[in-house]
Amino acid sequence: MAQLLYLHLGEDMEVNIFDDLYQNVRTQIASLAPTQEAKTMVAAQSLLSTESFKAVLAVDGGVAMKKNTAVAKQLASYAAGGGTVLFCCMFSSFVRPPDMDKMWQKFDQPWRSGDYHRTTFYLNKRMKNVLGSQRAVSLSREYSMKALHLQDVPAGSRAYVPLEHSRTQSRVWPPDAVDDTQTPAVFHKYGDGWLGYIGDVNNEKGTRGLLMAMLDFAVSSTNTPPPVAAVEPSPGDSNPGCFVCEKLTPVKKCGRCHKRQYCSIECQREDWQGHKHMCPFPRPLPPNVVVSPMHPQED
Questions:
Q1: Whole-number CA gyration radius for the chain
Q2: What does residue 121 show for φ and ψ, rounded to 5 degrees?
Q3: Which pLDDT belongs to residue 237?
């Protein structure tokens, strides 16, 4: 029986990108526990309401989209009942910060998306009390990571933190001071369960160690959360309207993929910088063209 559930609720292309960029992660996770996958809202709701999982991994930004609000609410109930939900891998690369901020509200958290940059982060010594001494010892003491940070996270739940002397690292821009109240990684007690967030966009070695420590913590727990009843989507969720501002009318569609909806050319332009990297092309790409996630890996 599967103990871990992958959630792929984003664009179709994101599944292929995940398989390419995170094969080493999948291999490590498969060695820890059996896994199962859900690639639609219906499949996710069905599995969460009929089976018991030690942890759920939201590996792309789809779970934060308005049309998947019912799944986010179901995950909140699952975590409160003893489960572990990890927002990881490509989640921070593809999620829209406004969507993520609204999603945290479903989990009764005041967290907000923060800065996006690379710096050297240091393991929070309090993680020894959270994950256990043995797991904490296995984690990198410090490493450089490019990440989408979170704000307003309690100090004890920040897995890695910058220090006062930390500076941004870039091949283009000069070093700048870092907000040491923000964090790229979280492991937070929620009800009887746990919420995890990893904002790294580059699949760093230290990040893989943190993810495996969180999963090992969940799998080793004697608590097995029960299935959680599905939440009925609201009428507004099933017709999300404009992808950017969520106005229901009037609605136009992207002229290339004919899937993503907008209420105006202004909203489409605002979203294009991210959407252009995942918008399905009308014909096969030339072999020398590479499509990257929303946040590029180079600095």
A1: 19
A2: -110, 155
A3: 64
Which tens digit of pLDDT belongs to each residue from 259-268?
788 888 888 8
Q: Which residue has the higher pLDDT, 87 or 230?
A: 87
**How many Cα atoms sit within 13 Å of 290 on the Cβ side?**
7
C-alpha angle 210-214-215 in degrees, rounded to nearest 5: 115
pLDDT digits (tens, 9 = 90+) for 115-130: 999 999 999 999 999 9
Count other Cβ atoms within 10 Å, centred on residue 99. 20
Distance in angstroms (rounded) separating the CA atoms of residues 4 and 35: 5
Cα gap 184→196, rounded to integer Å: 11
| Mean pLDDT value across residues 212-219 | 97
* Alpha-carbon span 280 to 91, nearest angstrom: 19
Report residue 219: phi and psi, to 5°: -65, -35
Q: Where are the beta strands (DSSP E) in 126-277?
A: 142-151, 158-161, 185-190, 193-198, 252-253, 261-262
pTM of the model: 0.84
Burial class (CB in 10 A: 0-12, 13-18, 19+), 180: middle
